[in-house]
Write a structure and sequence with these properties.
Layout lengths: L1 H7 L9 E5 L1 E4 L10 E5 L6 H8 L2 E21 L5 E20 L1 H10 L6 E6 L4 E3 L4 E2 L2 E6 L5 E2 L2 E2 L1 E2 L4 E2 L5 E2 L1 H12 L5 H10 L1 H17 L1
Parallel strand pairs: 12-14
Antiparallel strand pairs: 1-2, 1-4, 3-5, 4-5, 4-7, 5-13, 6-9, 7-8, 10-11
Length: 222
């Protein structure tokens, strides 16, 4: 289960807008009152009902799918506590990516903040002048997001997109989690399996921090 959680990132992402109703994943139907909710873009696993239910438990939460212009989901220069290399947004003129907006109420926002390592890995920011065209026939120009304080992880000066996130006109590679972990292991010169490497990062915070620092250094020297 530990390895599956790490390598499964960003988990199951529906192709259309949906609503969590308790533990059920339901289609988005008709007009939904969003007036008391905050739009928060989800660049990685927060697009997935599996991850949202892991964070919130049974809850009521609208999740709006659409196309976001000039932004893409790429890997961040840090590891999660459960062994995945996490996600962040990357501005790239001309890219269009398939994204989700979680419409959070105040209680959900507070829970989400607690899961995002604010001040260490992420900052909560407002993004203006967006071009988000939703499947619900709405255009969103302002939303919040959790952006990596460490920036994208780069190899050979290029960010690496998350393969599970659909996009067009990407000028850089896209990898899944296992492919990326294998590249990192090779670059580090380790004789370890992906399983062994992930278990090290999960079980030893000092090792995880050392590998995090390597991701940052490599990204800045690329």
């Amino acid at each position: 289960m530990t390895l599956q959680r790490a390598l499964g990132y960003p988990y199951d992402i529906p192709s259309t807008s949906y609503v969590l109703e308790g533990e059920k994943v339901c289609p988005w139907r008709g007009e939904i009152d969003l007036s008391t909710r905050l739009p928060v873009l989800a660049c990685g696993s927060n697009q997935s009902p599996t991850q949202l239910l892991r964070k919130f438990g049974p809850t009521d939460l609208p999740v709006m799918a659409g196309w976001l212009q000039d932004y893409d989901s790429v890997y961040s220069a840090h590891f999660t506590s459960y062994g995945s290399i996490a996600a962040t947004y990357h501005y790239e003129k001309g890219v269009r990516s398939r994204q989700m907006i979680t419409w959070l109420d105040q209680d959900q926002l507070e829970v989400m903040h607690q899961t995002e390592s604010l001040g260490e890995n992420y900052e909560f920011v407002e993004m203006d002048n967006l071009h988000f065209h939703s499947d619900c026939h709405q255009r969103i120009t302002t939303a919040h997001s959790y952006n990596s304080l460490l920036g994208p992880f780069r190899l050979d000066a290029l960010p690496i997109a998350i393969r599970a996130i659909t996009a067009v006109s990407r000028p850089y590679p896209a990898l899944d989690q296992e492919e990326l972990q294998k590249k990192v292991i090779k670059k580090l010169g380790y004789d370890l399996s992906v399983k062994e490497f992930i278990e090290e990062n999960i079980n030893d915070a000092k090792v995880r921090k050392k590998h995090r620092e390597w991701l940052i250094k490599t990204s800045h020297s690329s």
